[in-house]
Amino acid sequence: MANSQYTARKSVADIVASGEGGHTLPKSLGAFSITAIGVGAIIGAGIFVLTGTAAAQYAGPGIMLSFILAGFACAFVGLCYAELAALIPVSGSSYTYTYATLGELAAWIIGWDLVLEYAMGAATVAVGWSGYLGSLLGQFGIHLPPALMHSPGTVTLKDGSTITALFNLPAALIIMALTVLLIRGTKESASLNNVMVAVKLIVVVAFIGFGIAYVNQDNWTPFIPANTGEFGHFGWSGVLRGSSVVFFAFIGFDAVSTAAQEAKNPQRDMPIGILGSLIICTALYVAVAAVLTGLVPYTKLNVPDPIALGVDVIGKPWLSLLIKFGALAGLTTVILVLLYGQSRIFYTIANDGLLPKFFSTLHPVHGTPHMSQIFIGIICAIVAGLVPIHILGEMVSIGTLFAFILVCGAVIYLRKSEKDTYRPFRVPGVPIIPVLGIIFCLVLMSALPGDTWLRLVVWLAIGLAIYFGYGQHHSVQRQKQLAKAGKR
Fold first, then answer.
1. Which residues pair with 155 in a beta bridge?
2. Which of 97, 210, 241, 428 is deepest in the core (most CB within 10 A)?
3. Transmembrane residues, as ranges (predicted)?
């Protein structure tokens, strides 16, 4: 009985039916808004923060190849997400898909892992948002206290002086502000997201359009700097490490899948939103990386605002202000989408009984999972204020890649176990495409540092303790099994 509980699957029909009752999230998102959610999540930290760091420390101008490699990996995984999101149009992302394939325990593990992807991802981007805010305000002569702009510890400022930081206050405040917005309603949040995505895309295209005329092609030589003797620092291993580091900026299409239950026509809109946003954003990433490394020698790009540094080379102060405003808008949409996605995953897990019921409580007026949103907002704000960005970024990357592997496996499994179920969108070339997705993710995971793997193991151990201490005793699936056993 115990073992069967851990491996018991929820059928696709039951999962879909769970999203069609009266106690459901309102269907208010169309294909355009879903695509904008994806673009909102993808375009942000990768362009405005991580491009410079990855180029300076790992790949040099070869960061362009890093983005292409990460884009290929996402393409294979994105096709798998498109099939599963259309087949199983409910909230929960890869947690839900795993429940339909590997059973309850595996679903809990991946659901807990998704906290690294969404909640820690929001905290990571909030730290980058704080850096751009400080840079923008500085152009107007407004200087926030450095001790309240960084996580605790000794920080070296641009003038060479050092201070003891206490807490990253702007990072925490932006998370709490967006949490309040999300509580007020999905439609309102999506409308703000659409506007900010438009502003962000204009800024990105402006940087590419103005910057390309000032590119110094000598800065692209050597295209892949020689390896320093350490794996992951330049050379081809640096290109691979660069892909692993920037990979978490591609999780937008994953966040799109959490909107399936609120899509007006999920069978049509979800594949469009997932694949459309991925194609748009990969092209923009490569173009921005090319222009940035052509404007500024890669050795000088290890700064919190690399795009602003590139604009300074162009010599147009008004464009510098525009870029920084755009960066803030871009990072804001990423935080918004990640906080949104995490609350919907907790909502789904709580409906299955694996988390306390208050996580699935809907606001009586706005219809949003407000208790889940508040809890996540508080935790993310604390983490963003206290933890350095490089630690957060690596944890997000490994958590994301782990989740993607199970999604690819879910497509292969469901093609056999649910072979007669109608699929509005089908991944071509199964099992080849899902297997390639798994291989790409494993390769990128292998390039991450060993301490990142250790943090993943510790995180999963905490999750297992929660499951065996609470989740298994309150599982809705377990109650159904006990009820069936009692009737026999």
1. 163
2. 97
3. 29-51, 63-88, 94-115, 122-142, 162-183, 195-214, 234-253, 274-298, 318-340, 374-392, 398-415, 427-447, 453-470
